[in-house]
Amino acid sequence: MHVRLVNAAGGVKEVKVGFSWTTFFFGFFPALFRGDLKWAAIMFITATAIGIFTLGLGAWVPGIIFSFIYNKMYIKELLEKGYRPLDAHAQSVLHQGGIVAAPASL
After folding, report:
1. Sheet holding 12-16: strands in order across?
2. Which residues contact residue 96 at a Cβ distance below 8 angstroms, ignoring those fewer than 6 apart?
3. pTM for the full model?
4. CA torsion, points 63, 28, 31, 93, in degrees to nearest 10?
5. Would you say 4 and 86 are in contact if contact means Cβ atoms under 8 Å apart?
6. DSSP states along 15-61
7. CA–CA separation, 75 and 97 (whole Å)
8. pLDDT tens digits, one per residue of 38-74
9. Residue 93: left (phi > 0), alpha (psi -120 to 50), or beta?
10. What whole-number distance in Å separates Cα of residue 3 and Cα of residue 80?
11. Which long-range contacts (CB under 8 A, 24 or more apart) does 62-67 make?
12. pLDDT digits 0-9 by tens, 1-16
């Protein structure tokens, strides 16, 4: 499910809530393309470190783990940067996903 977030300047971002298939298939590249350099670097370093210790066989494990948590982390960081849900539906979806505490009046 996708929701739209808006910042004070009127910029709108459409983000997916839930499992990240793009992270599952492409690793750190979706974070890199979104401009989320911190998490792209963390994903790359984690996959590289585990890959080194397992001779490359375990490098896919961090990708699977980040697939479950990356979208939620990305949305939380956008909210910290001043983005807010565009409408009540987006607020409700974020609440159901455990990303925001409770629906507030918009």
Report:
1. 12-16, 2-6, 84-85
2. none
3. 0.87
4. -10
5. yes
6. EE-S--HHHHHHTTHHHHHTT-HHHHHHHHHHHHHHHHHTTTTTTTH
7. 11
8. 999 999 999 999 999 999 889 899 999 999 999 999 9
9. alpha
10. 16
11. 63/23, 63/24, 63/27, 64/24, 66/20, 66/23, 67/19, 67/20, 67/21, 67/23, 67/24
12. 899 999 999 999 999 9
Query: How is residue 48 written in tokens?
Result: 């590289």
Q: What is the distance between the alpha carbons of residues 79 and 101, in angstroms, rounded to a whole number? A: 12
In angstroms, the CA 73 to CA 96 distance is 15
Residue that the structure tokens 């590289």 belong to = 48
